[in-house]
Amino acid sequence: MTSTTTAQSLAGRTQQHIALTEQYAAHNYHPLPVVLAEGHGAWVTDVDGKRYLDCLAGYSALNFGHGHPRLLARAHEQLDKLTLTSRAFFNDQLGPFAQALAELTGKDLILPMNSGAEAVETSIKVSRRWGYDVKGVAEAQASIVVMEGNFHGRTTTIVSFSNDSDATVGYAPYTPGFRMVPYGDIAAMRAAIDETTVAVLLEPIQGEGGVIIPPEGFLREVRALCTETNVLMVADEIQSGLGRSGTTFACDHEGVVPDIYVLGKALGGGIYPVSAIAADHDVLDVITPGSHGSTFGGNPLAAAIGHEVVAMLQTGEFQAAAVRLGERLEAGLAPLVGNGFDAVRIRGLWCGIDITDGVATGRQVTEALLQQGVLAKEAHGQTVRLAPPLVATDDDIDTLVEAFKTVMAEFRA
Ligand SMILES: *Cc1c(COP(=O)(O)O)cnc(C)c1O
């Protein structure tokens, strides 16, 4: 085989995989044209052998990077011992995991599920039941206050309170019981709360919305309002939590403790779907045998991986890395503000960039970054969000910044 035919057959592999996927997998995503085959740390390799810096990190499911040795070792060990029991029986992994996650969150109890959407659903069910059993809300009247621009998952109930038409059109009838207010508007939130209100559900930073950081003090005001009105504060930390924002939870930035933490994504270490909610007895004790469950939730493999994730977060090293790398990224990107960027929002190693209208769209920027060996994802229209793994190096961050500079110079030319 000549080197020319080798190059051709390699380049052909990407096209083949894309064609096969497009032919047989439903078109619910619009992926960038890259077919990944391997990943280690912050870097992935495609089927043609080209390497990319992964600056999406599975929407923060890969906070610890691809194939972190500690997580892989723990997963391999458990894989050979016991993977699934169902909750019809106890297993020897769930108790220690639950204890560790309860300690990390400072809560009495956890309820394990699998996907993030299931954990959000769990928080909604728990809040409603708490409303009826504890607060004394009239039967079937419970209301939950949610934010404009939210993203909480894809179930029928969750999309019922999304204001993103892409996510909602064609899925009616929608689940009632939700009231939407502008993100960051405490007066509107106060006006939306009445005696039927059981919970305020919010992301402490809106991830899919474009890494939208609320006004300083907002989370503290929400906490105070919820306490005053006897409403549960439910923080969806599925994407913002577990180190991404430079603290264990994004609520920590304002010293706020919600009544319910909703966790997922990085809790599974990028290996396995693991989600959970965490709350105190006065809230989570409303759940009784048979009232909620999951075949896979709390299984030994999930619990072993989740436990290792919690142990890794307890050292604080990943939170510290997010702060350090985020500052480096912010300094590197600053010269582009006014030079192709309208704004850069950053908290920890989590960044939303608004591309100046007319320079390029978010999608065009991610396509150009791909050519530079950087994987990123647009949020809405003009926004690109960055969430490199927290195991990225200073050099990796510099690589990302240089790629952005090259790309933006091309668009401005
Ligand atoms: C990703 C995400 C979810 C949904 O998680 P899935 O595992 O995709 O169901 C919910 N809330 C937030 C804030 C998320 O980022």
UniProtKB/TrEMBL annotation:
Keywords assigned by UniProt?
Amino-acid biosynthesis, Aminotransferase, Proline biosynthesis, Pyridoxal phosphate, Transferase
Show the InterPro entries listed in the entry. Answer: Aminotrans_3, Aminotrans_3_PPA_site, Class-III_PLP-dep_AT, Orn_aminotrans, PyrdxlP-dep_Trfase, PyrdxlP-dep_Trfase_major, PyrdxlP-dep_Trfase_small
Q: In which pathway does it act?
A: Amino-acid biosynthesis; L-proline biosynthesis; L-glutamate 5-semialdehyde from L-ornithine: step 1/1
Q: Which Pfam families match?
A: Aminotran_3
Q: Which domain of life is it from?
A: Bacteria
- Asked whether the UniProt record includes Amino-acid biosynthesis among its keywords, one would answer yes
Give the enzyme's EC designation: 2.6.1.13
Give the GO molecular function terms.
identical protein binding; ornithine aminotransferase activity; pyridoxal phosphate binding
Q: Which enzyme type, at the first EC level? A: transferase
Keyword Cell membrane attached: no
**Gene3D superfamilies in the record:** Aspartate Aminotransferase, domain 1, Type I PLP-dependent aspartate aminotransferase-like (Major domain)
Q: Which cofactor does it need?
A: pyridoxal 5'-phosphate
The UniProt entry's sequence similarity note says: Belongs to the class-III pyridoxal-phosphate-dependent aminotransferase family.
Q: What's the name of the protein? A: ornithine aminotransferase
Organism of origin is Nocardioides agariphilus
